[in-house]
C-alpha cells in the first residue's frame, strides 16, 4: 500500500496510551502500563499482528513479524531498543521496522572531489512493530503495543520478495553440497542448476542466489597458506610415488605445483600461470601450470626453469603472454632463442575498460578499424594507418593508445608474420583455451583440492582430445579441386591441417601468376595492380611468399600453391608438409631407431598409429577383417615378450606435468 503523503506517518492499531505520532528516531522511554493496554478487537486473525498480542520472547515476535512481512511483500530489520539487559529493568521495548525505513545520508568529500553514492533502498518508510515487556502479571512476556502497516513504496510480489537479503538463506546441508561441488571445480552457475534439479524447483527458485554462493565460498578462503603448502607438497609426493610420470617442483619460499598469467586463483590470492599449446589436430593441449606466491623476476624465472625441466630442456619456438615486464625479462634470460610476443586476445579483453567511455558511440567503429590494422601485412601500411586512426578518433593523448603503439612489434601481425604461431592468435583458439582453464579455476577450497581438480581437468581434456581426434580421422575427406596436390596432402596431413590447406588450394584457382626476373608476381584475377612476390627454386624444392603465411602457420598460402600448380608440380614439397601437422608427428624411421629415453614419445606415436588404424579399418568390411586378423597375430607376438618393471612404469595412459 502507498500512503498519500510519504512524509506523514500513519499509525494504526496503536496503544491508546501513546496517542502521538511516533517518530522512529525518537528516544522517549515512556512505558505503557499493562492496565492501559487494550487488546485489539478489530481482528482475530493470528497471521496479522494486533495490539496486545503476546510472545514469550522478543525473538519469537521478530520471527512472527518477519513471516507476516514476507507474505505482504517486504522484509524487516531490528531498529531501536529501550533499556539494556542487566541494567535496571533490563530491555523493556523493541522496534522492528520495514527494511526501507530511514534514509541514507549522502557522502561528502573533504577534498571537493565527487563521491560515488550507491543507490540505497531506504526511502523513509514508517511501517513498524513495537513490542514492550510486561513483568507484573506473572512470568515476563512481550506484548505488541504499536503497529503500522502503511508503506510509502510498492510492496513486492511473492516471486520477488524472496530475493530480499532477509529471506535468502543457505542451510547447513546446502553449504556442504556447495563445498563438495566446489572441490569438483564446477562453476557457481552449474552448482545452482544442479541444486535446482536436486530440489525439484524451477530455475531461480532456490532460497539463495549465485551471489550468496560466491560470498559463502569467499568466507572459506581465509586459509593458513603455510600449512596449505606443507599439505600440498605431501600430496604431490604421494602422487609421485604412485605415478612416475607425475612431475612437480617447488622452492621453500615459493609454493608451486605444476603460464597465461592473467589468471589468479582467487581462492588463495595467488597468481596462476598456465602453459597451453595446440596439437597437430588443432586442439588445445595442456603442458602444465604454476602457482606463485609472488609475481616477480625471481619466481617467474624459477617457473620457466621448471617448465623447461618438464619439457626435457626443449624451449618453444614462440611464446605468447600477457603484458608483464617481469615475465618478458625472465623469458629473455631463461629462453633466449624463443620468440616473445603479446597475446592479442588478452589485449582486446581490456578494450572495453580502456576505450568504451572515451569513444562512446564510436567505440565499435574504432574497434573495427583496429582489427583492420592488426591484420595488415605491410609494416608501412600499419604505421600510416595507425596515425590516421589516432587523428580520426582524437586519441593523441590517450595513454593506452601510446602504449599499444610503443609495443606494436610484440602484438601486431605485420611485425610477427615471419614467426611460427600455429594459429594461436585466433579468437576461436582463445575461447577453447579459456573454456579449459575455467574447469579448474573454479576450484574454491584447499590447495590440495586445486591439484586434484587440475588432474581431473587434464584427464577430461585428454579424453576429449582423443575422442575428437578419432572423429576427425573417421571423417571421409572430401576433395574439392581434383588436383593431385590435394589428394597428396590429404593422405599425409591431419584433417584439421588439410582443411586449412584445402581452403588455400580452392582460393589459388582465382589467382593469376606472372613470371618475373626474380620470381613470380601473384594477384587475384580481378586486380590489375599489387600482388605477392613468390620465389621458387624447383631444383631444391624451396618456395616462399612475401605474405609469410607458411612461416606464420605452417600451411602454404594460395600464392605459393598457384605457382606450384603453374609449374606442373603434382606434389607439395616434403618440407612444406611439416611434421607438426601430420597424422604421425614422428616418422616411422625415427620410431625404429629411437633410444630408450624416447619412450614417452614412442608411446604417443603408437597411440596415434592405433587411432589411424581404427579409422582406416572402419572404411570397409574387407579392411576391418584384415585389421582384426593382423592385430590378433600382433597381440599374440607381443604377449610372448617379457615385461620389465621399467617398461610398466613408463607406459602410463596419462602423462601429466603439474
Automatic annotation (TrEMBL):
InterPro entries: FAR1_DNA_bnd_dom, FHY3/FAR1, HTH_FAR1-11-like, MULE_transposase_dom, Znf_PMZ, Znf_SWIM. It is found in: Nucleus. Putative transcription activator involved in regulating light control of development. GO terms for biological process: regulation of DNA-templated transcription. Residues 1-43 are annotated as: Disordered. This is Protein FAR1-RELATED SEQUENCE. The keyword Nucleotidyltransferase does not apply. Keywords: Metal-binding, Nucleus, Zinc, Zinc-finger. PANTHER family: PROTEIN FAR1-RELATED SEQUENCE 10-RELATED, PROTEIN FAR1-RELATED SEQUENCE 11. Belongs to the FHY3/FAR1 family. One of its GO terms (cellular component) is nucleus. GO terms for molecular function: zinc ion binding. The lineage of its organism: Eukaryota, Viridiplantae, Streptophyta, Embryophyta, Tracheophyta. Residues 535-568 form the SWIM-type domain. Transmembrane segments: none annotated. Its main location: nucleus.
